[in-house]
Amino acid sequence: MRDRPADVAHLTELLAADGYLADRGLATAVFLALSLDRPLLLEGEVGVGKTEIAKTLATTFGRKLIRLQCYEGIDASQALYEWDYARQMLQIRAMSTRAADALDSGYDEDAAVDALFGPKFLIERPLLAAVRAGDAAVLLIDEVDRADDEFEAFLLELLSDFQLTIPEIGTITASSSPLVILTSNRTRELHDALKRRCLYHWVGYPGAAREVEIVLTREPGVAPALARKVVAAVNRLRELDLAKPPGVAETIDWVRTLGVLRAGELDEHSALDTLGAVVKDRDDLELAQARLSEIVSGG
Amino acid sequence: MADTAPGGHGPSAFGPAAEGGAHPGRDLVDVLVAFGRRLRAAGVAVGTGDLRTYCAAVAPLDPGDLGDLYWAGRVSLVSRREDLAVYDRVFRQFFLDEPDDDLGKRMPLAKHARDQLRAAVEVPRADPPGPEQREEQRAELGLVASDLQVLRAKAFADCTDDELAALRKLIAAIRLTPPRRRTRRHVPARRGRAPDPRRTARETLRRHGEPPPPRHRRPRLRPRRLVLVLDVSGSMAGYSRNLLQFAYSTTRALDRVEVFCFGTRLTRVTRELDHRAPDEALARAARTVLDWEGGTRVGDCLDRFVRDWGRRGLSRGAVVVICSDGLDRGDPAVLAHAMERLKRLSHAIIWMNPHRGADPRHVPAALGMLVAAPHIDLLLSGHDLASLLELATALPRLR
């Protein structure tokens, strides 16, 4: 595991070496999350690299990435832990035969029953795994806004003390805090209590020059001129007031798609063929197709 | 949409400022706390804990670097995107001594508008009155109760202020129950197709390994989210007061209600309605709804709603209640398109149109209504108490 970064600039370099170009704000936010042991809540448009930063941090610092994808109706047995019922049942069967066979040999039934609710029969889910791993892990709680609000209340204990309670075993506390990244697409407002425990950063679209850099870092084989042209076209698409404006992920996809088709140039023809990589809504497609020449012009 | 930070690795925040006498002889914490208080005064909710985080955050960074001060504060003091602009402005004023120019120009107008708005939504106090008022009020309520049947069918527009106040008390008592949907969560059930391994295993342990009668579970049912989109423009101003009150009491009764107001533009007022005292909630809603009585652009506003909230999933699986007369000053094609998308993004759409009146066969002839009609699941009037009750009864049946 690599040590913590010395300062923000150092962190930016480390991330860049692993292919993630963070701007000053994001780098500062991550640096502070690491220094203060606080969870970091990232909000922003879809496809601006919120999830990606957690993955990169895991690689950069040699930590294990533990991901919890949130959805409506997620509950403790999917997020925290679950008892291995099948194994427990088998053990019970084994116990009853043993107890019948070994009535005279001092078989300790209490200990056997206690063992049924021991760590051996516990199935680890992401949150428990993160608490056990401590600072050897990056915990990504993805799209927390999709979970129900009760689930947020449930996250509070974890995020403030990095501990969780299993009634049969007791409270498990992390020896050191994992780096926690929460992401939200703002489908609903998160509770203030949750936000108060986190550092907050809004991730916007990168500037054009930085986006070109990002594309070139991700797809090193691409000609800089083409990258610039694609980025310019994407920025024009974002201005079009689409229902779903393309994110950075879409820009990279578009460049990649052009590469697969061996189109060395972004013109009206190749753009029309590959528009599906950036615009993923029928109404948006119609709008973009109508203005295609305007979109691909210049760059 | 690149973030704009004042200064990159910019000039020191303390060199010129200290010489200029802005913060002479104070140590860093005092400066940071003063900044936090300024931010609080500008309306950003900054807690003491947030300030401590800010101070802790600056420590591992370089406090002489303006960029570090900026980002450390932005990360620890702001927790909502809406507050970012305020933060930027206060930061510039505080650390860069920039004059507050654009605000000065906007202020008188904003204040004027706010007073107007407050007047428009001023409602009689709904919280418990003092003992001396109570006697008087009881008499009034007795009178109203005997007239209840009359009031039920009396259009809000024809009511006197006293009658409206009484009606509003009745409205506050209406509890909406949206239809329910299945969730991924399970609850124990007496019988069913899905076995419940957890409870079965527990019961087996309790019986020392003897297999118990099988336990079952079924999906838990939860009420669907309710999204109220209320027209508060001139033609609807008379109804908006009641509906806002209605929306308010509904928010109190259910935690899964979202409220939006629109006129010429759309504003989300859910958070304003969070506040406990009804008068304060309404005053805050008024402050947000700046387009009060400024004409209606139903299509554009619904389009905004779909783009900003609907597509992010706010209305997915929800019942959307739109209250408007459908008199749209915008392009009907936009409205048709927005309704079509909204229909796909929600479970059901109910449209309340006061102009529909009591006659169930009458469909208002406004162009907007004709355009929207194919996408509406239920058209109600909402012009009197009886029709609001109709909404309350119809809602649970919208499976």
From TrEMBL, chain B:
SUPFAM superfamilies: vWA-like
Region: Disordered, residue numbers: 1-21, 181-221
Pfam families: VWA_CoxE (PF05762)
InterPro entries registered for this protein in UniProt: UCP010256, Uncharacterised_CoxE, vWFA_dom_sf
Bias (Basic and acidic residues): 193-210
Biased composition, class Basic residues, residue ranges: 181-192
Coiled coil region boundaries: none
Name of protein: VWA domain-containing protein
Organism: Frankia nepalensis
